[in-house]
Protein backbone atom coordinates (compact mmCIF):
# COMPACT_ATOMS: atom_id res chain seq x y z
CA UNK A 1 0.00 0.00 0.00
CA UNK A 2 2.93 2.36 0.60
CA UNK A 3 3.83 2.15 -3.09
CA UNK A 4 0.24 2.84 -4.11
CA UNK A 5 0.05 5.93 -1.91
CA UNK A 6 3.36 7.20 -3.33
CA UNK A 7 1.92 6.66 -6.81
CA UNK A 8 -1.04 8.92 -5.95
CA UNK A 9 1.19 11.52 -4.24
CA UNK A 10 -1.25 12.80 -1.63
CA UNK A 11 -0.43 13.25 2.05
CA UNK A 12 -1.81 10.80 4.59
CA UNK A 13 -3.88 13.59 6.15
CA UNK A 14 -5.53 14.41 2.82
CA UNK A 15 -6.03 10.72 2.01
CA UNK A 16 -7.58 10.03 5.42
CA UNK A 17 -10.04 12.90 4.95
CA UNK A 18 -11.00 11.56 1.52
CA UNK A 19 -11.32 7.96 2.73
CA UNK A 20 -13.28 8.91 5.84
CA UNK A 21 -11.00 7.65 8.63
CA UNK A 22 -8.48 9.15 11.03
CA UNK A 23 -4.87 9.78 10.02
CA UNK A 24 -3.45 7.59 12.86
CA UNK A 25 -5.69 4.71 11.80
CA UNK A 26 -4.57 5.03 8.17
CA UNK A 27 -0.87 5.25 9.09
CA UNK A 28 -1.17 2.24 11.39
CA UNK A 29 -2.73 0.18 8.57
CA UNK A 30 -0.31 1.26 5.84
CA UNK A 31 2.94 1.21 7.84
CA UNK A 32 2.28 -1.60 10.30
CA UNK A 33 -0.67 -3.61 9.01
CA UNK A 34 -2.58 -2.86 12.22
CA UNK A 35 -6.23 -2.98 11.23
CA UNK A 36 -8.86 -1.52 13.58
CA UNK A 37 -10.69 -3.87 15.88
CA UNK A 38 -14.05 -2.75 14.48
CA UNK A 39 -14.88 -1.84 10.91
CA UNK A 40 -11.83 -3.45 9.27
CA UNK A 41 -13.83 -4.77 6.29
CA UNK A 42 -15.49 -1.39 5.69
CA UNK A 43 -12.07 0.29 5.71
CA UNK A 44 -10.75 -2.23 3.17
CA UNK A 45 -13.61 -1.36 0.79
CA UNK A 46 -13.02 2.37 1.25
CA UNK A 47 -9.32 1.90 0.47
CA UNK A 48 -10.14 -0.06 -2.70
CA UNK A 49 -12.50 2.71 -3.83
CA UNK A 50 -9.88 5.35 -3.03
CA UNK A 51 -7.20 3.64 -5.14
CA UNK A 52 -9.61 3.06 -8.03
CA UNK A 53 -10.80 6.68 -7.92
CA UNK A 54 -7.24 8.01 -7.99
CA UNK A 55 -6.08 5.68 -10.77
CA UNK A 56 -3.68 3.61 -8.66
CA UNK A 57 -3.22 -0.14 -8.74
CA UNK A 58 -5.12 -1.91 -5.97
CA UNK A 59 -2.51 -3.53 -3.70
CA UNK A 60 -2.50 -7.30 -3.49
CA UNK A 61 -3.19 -7.13 0.24
CA UNK A 62 -6.58 -5.57 -0.52
CA UNK A 63 -7.45 -8.01 -3.30
CA UNK A 64 -7.01 -11.02 -1.02
CA UNK A 65 -9.54 -12.14 1.55
CA UNK A 66 -9.00 -10.30 4.83
CA UNK A 67 -7.18 -12.22 7.48
CA UNK A 68 -8.60 -12.52 10.94
CA UNK A 69 -7.74 -9.38 12.86
CA UNK A 70 -5.13 -10.01 15.55
CA UNK A 71 -6.48 -10.16 19.04
CA UNK A 72 -6.46 -6.86 20.88
CA UNK A 73 -4.08 -7.01 23.88
CA UNK A 74 -6.94 -7.27 26.35
CA UNK A 75 -9.37 -9.32 24.26
CA UNK A 76 -7.87 -12.63 25.28
CA UNK A 77 -8.91 -11.83 28.82
CA UNK A 78 -12.24 -10.93 30.31
CA UNK A 79 -13.51 -7.57 29.06
CA UNK A 80 -13.37 -6.17 32.55
CA UNK A 81 -9.72 -7.06 33.10
CA UNK A 82 -7.23 -4.21 33.15
CA UNK A 83 -4.82 -3.46 30.31
CA UNK A 84 -1.54 -5.26 29.83
CA UNK A 85 1.56 -3.66 31.40
CA UNK A 86 3.14 -0.96 29.20
CA UNK A 87 6.16 1.30 29.74
CA UNK A 88 7.09 4.41 27.81
CA UNK A 89 9.99 3.32 25.63
CA UNK A 90 13.19 5.28 25.06
CA UNK A 91 12.12 6.53 21.63
CA UNK A 92 8.87 7.93 23.03
CA UNK A 93 10.63 9.63 25.97
CA UNK A 94 13.05 11.29 23.58
CA UNK A 95 10.25 12.21 21.17
CA UNK A 96 8.21 13.96 23.89
CA UNK A 97 11.20 15.40 25.77
CA UNK A 98 10.77 13.37 28.96
CA UNK A 99 13.73 12.77 31.23
CA UNK A 100 11.94 9.96 33.07
CA UNK A 101 8.81 7.84 32.79
CA UNK A 102 6.00 9.53 34.79
CA UNK A 103 4.28 6.17 35.35
CA UNK A 104 7.08 3.71 36.21
CA UNK A 105 8.61 3.59 39.72
CA UNK A 106 7.39 7.15 40.07
CA UNK A 107 6.32 7.09 43.74
CA UNK A 108 9.42 8.25 45.62
CA UNK A 109 7.78 10.41 48.30
CA UNK A 110 4.38 11.35 49.70
CA UNK A 111 4.28 14.33 47.29
CA UNK A 112 4.19 11.91 44.36
CA UNK A 113 0.84 10.45 45.51
CA UNK A 114 -2.13 12.06 43.74
CA UNK A 115 -4.77 12.96 46.32
CA UNK A 116 -8.44 12.74 45.42
CA UNK A 117 -11.06 13.29 48.15
CA UNK A 118 -11.61 9.55 48.58
CA UNK A 119 -7.86 8.78 48.58
CA UNK A 120 -7.36 11.48 51.21
CA UNK A 121 -10.17 9.97 53.33
CA UNK A 122 -8.82 6.41 53.04
CA UNK A 123 -5.29 7.62 53.82
CA UNK A 124 -6.46 9.42 56.95
CA UNK A 125 -8.66 6.49 58.03
CA UNK A 126 -5.65 4.16 57.90
CA UNK A 127 -3.47 6.63 59.83
CA UNK A 128 -6.07 7.26 62.55
CA UNK A 129 -6.53 3.51 62.96
CA UNK A 130 -2.77 3.17 63.44
CA UNK A 131 -2.70 6.00 66.01
CA UNK A 132 -5.89 5.37 67.97
CA UNK A 133 -7.04 1.84 67.16
CA UNK A 134 -9.99 0.71 65.09
CA UNK A 135 -10.92 -1.83 62.48
CA UNK A 136 -10.85 -0.75 58.81
CA UNK A 137 -11.03 -2.66 55.52
CA UNK A 138 -9.67 -0.82 52.46
CA UNK A 139 -11.22 -2.18 49.27
CA UNK A 140 -10.33 -1.40 45.67
CA UNK A 141 -9.91 -2.91 42.21
CA UNK A 142 -6.54 -4.13 41.03
CA UNK A 143 -4.37 -1.09 40.30
CA UNK A 144 -6.50 1.30 42.37
CA UNK A 145 -3.54 2.33 44.55
CA UNK A 146 -4.00 0.19 47.67
CA UNK A 147 -0.34 -0.83 47.95
CA UNK A 148 0.72 2.79 47.41
CA UNK A 149 -1.38 3.85 50.40
CA UNK A 150 0.16 1.08 52.51
CA UNK A 151 3.64 2.34 51.61
CA UNK A 152 2.52 5.91 52.28
CA UNK A 153 1.29 4.86 55.75
CA UNK A 154 4.65 3.28 56.59
CA UNK A 155 6.50 6.35 55.28
CA UNK A 156 4.26 8.73 57.25
CA UNK A 157 4.76 6.79 60.50
CA UNK A 158 8.55 6.96 60.04
CA UNK A 159 8.53 10.57 58.88
CA UNK A 160 6.48 11.79 61.85
CA UNK A 161 8.38 9.64 64.34
CA UNK A 162 5.27 7.87 65.64
CA UNK A 163 5.69 5.03 68.15
CA UNK A 164 3.62 2.60 66.12
CA UNK A 165 4.58 -1.05 65.75
CA UNK A 166 3.48 -2.35 62.35
CA UNK A 167 2.60 -6.06 62.32
CA UNK A 168 2.45 -7.50 58.79
CA UNK A 169 1.98 -11.28 58.51
CA UNK A 170 3.53 -12.72 55.35
CA UNK A 171 0.87 -13.50 52.74
CA UNK A 172 3.06 -14.75 49.88
CA UNK A 173 1.13 -17.98 49.29
CA UNK A 174 -2.12 -17.09 51.05
CA UNK A 175 -5.42 -18.34 49.65
CA UNK A 176 -8.82 -18.74 51.25
CA UNK A 177 -8.60 -22.52 51.20
CA UNK A 178 -5.81 -25.10 51.44
CA UNK A 179 -6.52 -26.55 47.99
CA UNK A 180 -5.34 -23.35 46.25
CA UNK A 181 -2.53 -22.39 48.62
CA UNK A 182 -1.94 -21.87 52.32
CA UNK A 183 -4.57 -20.31 54.54
CA UNK A 184 -3.57 -17.65 57.04
CA UNK A 185 -4.81 -18.83 60.41
CA UNK A 186 -5.18 -17.10 63.78
CA UNK A 187 -2.09 -18.92 65.06
CA UNK A 188 0.02 -17.40 62.25
CA UNK A 189 -1.27 -13.91 63.09
CA UNK A 190 -0.44 -14.55 66.76
CA UNK A 191 3.11 -15.52 65.84
CA UNK A 192 3.51 -12.38 63.71
CA UNK A 193 2.30 -10.18 66.61
CA UNK A 194 4.71 -11.80 69.07
CA UNK A 195 7.66 -11.46 66.68
CA UNK A 196 6.93 -7.75 66.06
CA UNK A 197 6.17 -6.79 69.65
CA UNK A 198 8.67 -9.04 71.46
CA UNK A 199 11.39 -10.06 68.98
CA UNK A 200 13.22 -13.26 69.84
CA UNK A 201 10.56 -14.55 72.24
CA UNK A 202 9.71 -18.22 71.80
CA UNK A 203 5.95 -18.77 71.49
CA UNK A 204 4.41 -21.07 74.09
CA UNK A 205 3.32 -24.47 72.88
CA UNK A 206 -0.27 -24.55 74.08
CA UNK A 207 -2.75 -22.16 72.40
CA UNK A 208 -3.98 -20.89 75.79
CA UNK A 209 -0.47 -20.03 77.00
CA UNK A 210 0.51 -18.58 73.62
CA UNK A 211 -2.40 -16.14 73.45
CA UNK A 212 -1.89 -15.11 77.09
CA UNK A 213 1.76 -14.49 76.21
CA UNK A 214 0.73 -12.27 73.29
CA UNK A 215 -1.73 -10.31 75.42
CA UNK A 216 0.94 -9.62 78.04
CA UNK A 217 3.49 -8.66 75.39
CA UNK A 218 1.04 -6.11 73.92
CA UNK A 219 0.31 -4.72 77.39
CA UNK A 220 4.00 -4.29 78.17
CA UNK A 221 4.63 -2.64 74.80
CA UNK A 222 1.67 -0.28 75.36
CA UNK A 223 3.10 0.73 78.75
CA UNK A 224 6.24 1.78 76.91
CA UNK A 225 4.10 4.17 74.83
CA UNK A 226 3.72 2.04 71.70
CA UNK A 227 0.66 1.68 69.51
CA UNK A 228 0.16 -1.48 67.46
CA UNK A 229 -1.32 -1.94 64.01
CA UNK A 230 -2.05 -5.31 62.41
CA UNK A 231 -1.92 -4.70 58.64
CA UNK A 232 -2.88 -7.56 56.30
CA UNK A 233 -2.55 -7.04 52.55
CA UNK A 234 -4.30 -9.28 49.99
CA UNK A 235 -6.95 -9.71 52.68
CA UNK A 236 -9.50 -10.92 50.10
CA UNK A 237 -7.61 -14.23 50.43
CA UNK A 238 -8.43 -14.58 54.13
CA UNK A 239 -10.65 -17.57 54.97
CA UNK A 240 -13.90 -16.77 56.79
CA UNK A 241 -12.80 -18.45 60.07
CA UNK A 242 -9.73 -16.18 60.23
CA UNK A 243 -11.89 -13.11 59.56
CA UNK A 244 -14.07 -14.15 62.50
CA UNK A 245 -11.01 -14.63 64.73
CA UNK A 246 -9.83 -11.08 63.99
CA UNK A 247 -12.66 -9.86 66.21
CA UNK A 248 -10.93 -11.58 69.17
CA UNK A 249 -7.63 -9.85 68.38
CA UNK A 250 -9.44 -6.53 68.05
CA UNK A 251 -10.94 -6.94 71.53
CA UNK A 252 -7.56 -7.26 73.28
CA UNK A 253 -7.45 -4.35 75.74
CA UNK A 254 -5.60 -2.90 78.70
CA UNK A 255 -8.39 -1.27 80.67
CA UNK A 256 -10.29 0.85 78.16
CA UNK A 257 -7.34 1.10 75.78
CA UNK A 258 -7.38 -1.11 72.71
CA UNK A 259 -4.04 -2.77 72.20
CA UNK A 260 -4.38 -3.50 68.50
CA UNK A 261 -5.72 -1.62 65.50
CA UNK A 262 -6.50 -3.65 62.36
CA UNK A 263 -6.31 -2.60 58.71
CA UNK A 264 -7.27 -5.08 55.98
CA UNK A 265 -6.34 -4.26 52.38
CA UNK A 266 -7.91 -6.25 49.57
CA UNK A 267 -9.72 -6.37 46.28
CA UNK A 268 -13.49 -6.21 45.83
CA UNK A 269 -13.89 -9.85 46.94
CA UNK A 270 -13.08 -8.63 50.47
CA UNK A 271 -16.14 -6.39 50.43
CA UNK A 272 -18.24 -9.39 49.40
CA UNK A 273 -16.89 -11.43 52.31
CA UNK A 274 -17.68 -8.54 54.65
CA UNK A 275 -21.16 -8.08 53.25
CA UNK A 276 -24.00 -7.37 55.66
CA UNK A 277 -25.79 -10.32 54.08
CA UNK A 278 -23.07 -12.76 55.19
CA UNK A 279 -24.16 -14.10 58.61
CA UNK A 280 -20.92 -16.08 59.00
CA UNK A 281 -18.97 -12.90 59.76
CA UNK A 282 -21.68 -10.73 61.30
CA UNK A 283 -19.55 -10.06 64.41
CA UNK A 284 -16.80 -8.60 62.22
CA UNK A 285 -19.17 -6.69 59.92
CA UNK A 286 -20.61 -4.82 62.92
CA UNK A 287 -17.14 -3.64 63.97
CA UNK A 288 -15.30 -3.12 60.68
CA UNK A 289 -15.58 0.04 58.56
CA UNK A 290 -15.26 -0.69 54.83
CA UNK A 291 -13.75 2.19 52.81
CA UNK A 292 -13.47 2.02 49.03
CA UNK A 293 -10.95 3.47 46.58
CA UNK A 294 -13.02 4.92 43.72
CA UNK A 295 -11.99 5.34 40.05
CA UNK A 296 -10.72 8.61 38.57
CA UNK A 297 -14.13 9.76 37.35
CA UNK A 298 -15.89 13.15 37.62
CA UNK A 299 -12.98 15.18 36.28
CA UNK A 300 -10.28 13.57 38.42
CA UNK A 301 -8.56 11.92 35.43
CA UNK A 302 -7.27 15.19 33.97
CA UNK A 303 -5.93 16.27 37.36
CA UNK A 304 -4.24 12.90 37.82
CA UNK A 305 -2.44 13.09 34.46
CA UNK A 306 -1.43 16.73 35.05
CA UNK A 307 0.03 15.74 38.43
CA UNK A 308 1.93 12.75 37.02
CA UNK A 309 3.55 14.68 34.17
CA UNK A 310 4.32 17.68 36.40
CA UNK A 311 6.19 15.40 38.86
CA UNK A 312 8.28 14.24 35.85
CA UNK A 313 8.97 17.85 34.84
CA UNK A 314 6.61 17.91 31.85
CA UNK A 315 3.45 19.73 30.78
CA UNK A 316 0.62 17.31 30.02
CA UNK A 317 -0.98 19.74 27.53
CA UNK A 318 2.15 19.53 25.35
CA UNK A 319 1.86 15.73 25.16
CA UNK A 320 -1.81 14.78 25.46
CA UNK A 321 -4.57 16.56 23.56
CA UNK A 322 -7.90 16.97 25.34
CA UNK A 323 -9.37 14.44 22.91
CA UNK A 324 -6.80 11.89 24.16
CA UNK A 325 -7.88 12.37 27.79
CA UNK A 326 -11.52 11.99 26.75
CA UNK A 327 -10.63 8.84 24.79
CA UNK A 328 -8.85 7.34 27.83
CA UNK A 329 -12.03 7.84 29.87
CA UNK A 330 -14.06 6.30 27.06
CA UNK A 331 -11.77 3.27 26.61
CA UNK A 332 -11.75 2.50 30.33
CA UNK A 333 -15.51 2.64 30.74
CA UNK A 334 -17.14 -0.70 29.95
CA UNK A 335 -20.74 -1.72 29.62
CA UNK A 336 -22.17 -4.73 31.39
CA UNK A 337 -25.60 -6.27 31.36
CA UNK A 338 -27.51 -7.12 34.50
CA UNK A 339 -31.05 -7.68 35.63
CA UNK A 340 -31.34 -3.89 35.89
CA UNK A 341 -30.31 -3.43 32.24
CA UNK A 342 -27.09 -2.04 30.79
CA UNK A 343 -24.74 -0.57 33.38
CA UNK A 344 -21.53 1.42 32.96
CA UNK A 345 -18.51 0.22 34.93
CA UNK A 346 -15.43 2.44 35.22
CA UNK A 347 -11.91 1.00 35.12
CA UNK A 348 -10.30 4.44 35.48
CA UNK A 349 -7.84 3.31 38.11
CA UNK A 350 -4.24 4.59 38.15
CA UNK A 351 -2.57 1.42 36.87
CA UNK A 352 -4.97 1.02 33.92
CA UNK A 353 -4.60 4.71 33.02
CA UNK A 354 -0.81 4.45 33.23
CA UNK A 355 -0.70 1.44 30.90
CA UNK A 356 -3.08 2.91 28.32
CA UNK A 357 -1.40 6.34 28.17
CA UNK A 358 2.07 4.75 27.97
CA UNK A 359 1.02 2.53 25.07
CA UNK A 360 -0.60 5.49 23.29
CA UNK A 361 2.56 7.61 23.68
CA UNK A 362 4.69 4.81 22.24
CA UNK A 363 2.32 4.54 19.28
CA UNK A 364 2.24 8.31 18.70
CA UNK A 365 6.05 8.52 18.78
CA UNK A 366 6.32 5.65 16.32
CA UNK A 367 3.91 7.41 13.95
CA UNK A 368 5.74 10.72 14.34
CA UNK A 369 2.87 12.70 15.87
CA UNK A 370 3.66 15.79 17.94
CA UNK A 371 0.91 15.02 20.48
CA UNK A 372 -1.25 12.07 21.43
CA UNK A 373 -4.83 12.56 20.26
CA UNK A 374 -8.03 10.59 20.73
CA UNK A 375 -7.56 8.55 17.55
CA UNK A 376 -4.20 7.25 18.77
CA UNK A 377 -5.68 6.20 22.12
CA UNK A 378 -8.58 4.42 20.44
CA UNK A 379 -6.17 2.64 18.11
CA UNK A 380 -4.03 1.14 20.89
TrEMBL record:
Cited Pfam families? AAA_22 (PF13401)
Q: Name one GO molecular function term.
A: ATP hydrolysis activity
Residues covered by region (Disordered): 58-78
What range(s) does the ORC1/DEAH AAA+ ATPase domain occupy? 132-274
Q: Which InterPro entries match?
A: AAA_22, ExeA_AAA_ATPase_DNA-bind, P-loop_NTPase
Stated name of the protein: Putative secretion ATPase, PEP-CTERM locus subfamily
Amino acid sequence: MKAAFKQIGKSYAAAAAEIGCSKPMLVAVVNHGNWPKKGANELREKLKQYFEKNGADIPASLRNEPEAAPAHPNESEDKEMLLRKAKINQAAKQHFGLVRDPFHDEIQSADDVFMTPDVRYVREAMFQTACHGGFVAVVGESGAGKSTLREDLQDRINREGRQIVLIEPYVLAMEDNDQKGKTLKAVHIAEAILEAVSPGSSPKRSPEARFRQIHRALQESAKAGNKHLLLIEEAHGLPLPTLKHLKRFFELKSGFERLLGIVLIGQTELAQKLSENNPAVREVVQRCEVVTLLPLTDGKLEGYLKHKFARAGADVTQILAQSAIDAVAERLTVKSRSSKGTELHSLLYPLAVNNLVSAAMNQAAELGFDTVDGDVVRGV
